[in-house]
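Batch manifest, entry 17 of 40.
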Amino acid sequence: MPLLAGLDLGTTKLTAIAFDPVRGDVVGRTALPNEANITSATDRALGRSEWDANQIISRGFDCLRSLLRDLGPRRHELAAIGVTGQQH
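Output type: structure tokens
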């Protein structure tokens, strides 16, 4: 049975989840802190926000690797991944 996964690239953490769409069961999940904010204190005081896109991508892959480890032998059942992100 194929599994589906989602990856959310959030501002405070990156979260990945895998579930069985037939049974509706969550079969794996992981989250890592998003440490890609590179906004200086001066810019932050002005209401600005700057992020290191390469670091977000790298941490997203770290999150997916962790999810695959959690899935163990079921990782081969993963059929699709959806990605979301909401930055300022």
